[in-house]
Every structure is written in C-alpha cells, then in structure tokens.
Design a protein that fits this description.
globular, 2 domains
C-alpha cells in the first residue's frame, strides 16, 4: 500500500463498478469486539460528515467516465441506523442523484435493534432502503453485556417483528458464534428463536479477537479465553443443520439465505466485482485498482471531497490468492477453468500439489469443475487459505 492523492488513472473508467459502499462511522457505544473506524455522535457532527461524504461522491463521479446504474448500495458502519431520519432521507436522495440506482437495486442499511422504532423504519422506507441488516449478535443477556451491546434480547426480537410489519421482507440477522461465557444451549436456543421469526437471511460469524478492540487488549493482558476448537466445531455444525432445516441454504462460509435473498452487495465482494466506496476508512475497488480512505473522521470532514487515500498496488500473486480464497468461501466453490483463463495454466500447476493434498485429507472435493470445501474443510478454511497463499514468483511458468 502507498499513500497518494486521488489518482483517476489508477481507477479506470469505472464502467465495471456495480455497487457502492458508504461508511457511516457514528456509534452510541463501541462494541468490545469492534476495530472499525467509529466515533461518537455529537450535535451537528453527523450532518457535517454526510455533507463531506456527498462531496466525495461528487468528486468520485466526476472522475469516472462511465458508471452504469448501480445494482447495490450499502450503508455500513458504525451505526447508520443512528442517523436522524430527515438527514438519511436527504442524504440518500442526493446520493442517488449522483450515483443512480438500477431498477430493483438492493439498498441495505446496517441497524442496531434499539434504533428501530416505527418512525425510523418509516423513514428508512421513504429513503429507499429495502434491506435491513440487523445486528442482534446474541439473545443471551450476559453475552450481550460481554459484547457491550445496547439492547436486550426482547428488544432484538421486537425489532425484527417491527421491521417486518413496516414492510421490510428482506431482513438479515447477524449472530456471533463463540461469545465468551455463552453456553452451547444458550447460543442454540437463541439461534432457534431467530430462525423461528422466519428471517430470510442469516449471518453467523465466528467471534474474532481484533488487535485494536477491547477484546484484543484483554487478550494481550491474558484476560481473554477463546473457545476450544471442539466446542466451536459442534456449534458450527449445529448452526448449519438448524439453518438448513429452517429453509435457509448455506451459500457462503458464514451466510445462509432463502431463495432470492442472498446478500447481493456482499456477493459483489466475494465474486471480485468492482465496488465503489465513500466515507472515512472505506475500501473501494474499480478498474482493477483498490484504495482505502484514511481513518480520521475530523480530517475526512476537513478535506471534504478529497480524502487521503492509500492505493494498493496489487501483484498478480495477490490478485490470484484473493480469487482462490474468495472462490472457496462460496459453497459452489472455486471455478478452476475461470481461474486458468484469468491467470494462466501455470497457476493451476503451482496449486496442484496443495489441492491434491487437501482432497486426500477430506478438506476439498470436486463438483462440476469446481474445487469446494467439504463440511470439515469449512472449519479448517483458514489453514487451507494459508497454504494456498501465493508468494512472488509463484505464477512463473513451470519448466
């Protein structure tokens, strides 16, 4: 990565961009597992920030010669659901004038349950939001307290029902697996209650200890005990079984959906499509380039329309490694013919010994020209990805 001012030539003409991510960094409280770019919401700060984001969007659009209507728009954070309804309606109206949406585009907003009252839900609908990603994380009061969440289990379930009544048929729920102190029974009871609400999309992520999070600091001080591999394996298998019995197909390592309700925005990332991004700390890709906006909210606002950026000069090995592990994350697996076409036969020759070893270990299987992780392979995916990481020179022709 290297820092630079905005450089249009690195980005291509933008004709391949299919989605847009907007980072809204404000939170009422910081979760103990979080290391995202966030900050407290204070009077006037949100409006000033959104104006700066619109300025960046206009500058971005001016540098892209041809951008077709976008298929997805995702407001993440932070906590976008904290934004005052009038500000959100105005922001999205102006943003979609700059970057028009295709007919039937998916417009997602991340939300905390405690924010989802009837007035806000009505405003989200008015603004054009048609998908809510609701961060329940758990239905165990003690686990929620350990995470420093701001809602109770009852508020979480009530928010799901209120959103459905407000017309949000496309609702996704986030849960965390292996929260410290949460028993298997409590996790599975909570999972069953969420599935019983008939949500069409579910994300169940393993709790990871990020270095800059509260949990990361506790881990460095020896005050954080991670779950055993055996317990995690049991919970993961049970999650897959219960979600599939509830009619949700397992389509990505951590994600489940009914037919027609896959997360279209996330699929753009997993299939390596170009996704533009605005906001502090946001990461975008277009025309083969990738950039990250700097992480200071105050400096982002001061430099409205011209954020500091770091550009990722991706090597062929880095791009191929990304193609491999993203392809394997999806349950349909990695398209080996497409990999050969994009990166050449030398890549498959380089990978062949490792792929054969993982097949022999029962971690990979072949399916219609694709290599896909087995159920056991899903649990050991980090080890598989690590062994398939390419080093400089790995794409050289094999003699």
């Amino acid at each position: 990565m290297r820092s630079s001012a905005s450089t249009p030539s690195r980005r291509g003409d933008g004709a391949d961009a299919r989605g847009l991510y907007v980072h809204v960094p404000f939170c009422a409280r910081r979760c103990n597992f979080c290391d995202f770019v966030t900050g407290p919401e204070v009077a006037g700060r949100t409006e000033t920030y959104l104006d700066a984001a619109l300025a960046e969007a206009r500058a971005e659009r001016a540098e892209l010669a041809a951008t077709p209507p976008l298929e997805t728009l995702f407001l993440g954070g932070g906590t976008p659901s904290l934004v005052a309804p009038r500000l959100l309606v105005r922001f999205l109206a102006r943003l979609t004038e700059i970057f028009p949406l295709a007919a039937g585009a998916e417009v997602s907003l991340e939300a905390n349950p405690e924010d989802l009252d009837d007035a806000r839900l009505a405003a989200f609908r008015e603004a054009g939001v048609n998908r809510l990603s609701i961060g329940l994380q758990s239905l165990d009061p003690a686990a929620l307290a350990a995470l420093n969440r701001g809602h109770t289990p009852e508020q979480g379930l009530a928010a799901l029902r209120r959103a459905e009544r407000a017309g949000f048929t496309n609702r996704s729920v986030d849960l965390l697996l292996a929260i410290p102190g949460e028993t298997e029974r409590l996790f599975l009871d909570g999972l069953d209650r969420v599935l019983g609400e008939g949500v069409p999309h579910l994300s169940v992520y393993a709790l990871t200890v990020e270095e800059r999070s509260v949990f990361g600091r506790r881990a460095r001080a020896g005050r954080f005990a991670e779950e055993s591999d055996e317990r995690f394996e049991r919970l993961y298998h049970a999650t897959v079984d219960r979600a599939e019995r509830a009619g949700l197909a397992h389509y990505e390592i951590s994600n489940f959906a009914r037919h027609g309700f896959r997360a279209r925005h996330n699929l753009l990332y997993w299939t390596r499509a170009s996704v533009l991004a605005i906001g502090v700390g946001a990461v975008g890709t277009a025309g083969g380039a990738r950039w990250r906006n700097a992480s200071s909210i105050e400096r982002y606002v001061r430099r409205a329309g011209a954020p500091d950026r770091e550009w990722d000069e991706r090597t062929p090995e880095a791009r191929a490694t990304e193609a491999i592990f993203l392809g394997l994350r999806l349950r349909e697996g990695l398209d080996l013919a497409a990999l050969r076409e994009e990166f050449g036969a030398a890549l498959l020759e380089t990978l062949a010994p490792a792929l054969a070893r993982f097949r022999a270990l029962g971690l990979l299987e072949d399916s219609a020209g694709r290599a896909r992780l087995t159920r056991r392979g899903l649990l050991l995916s980090d080890a598989v990805f690590r062994d398939l990481t390419l080093l400089p020179g790995d794409l050289a022709p094999v003699s």
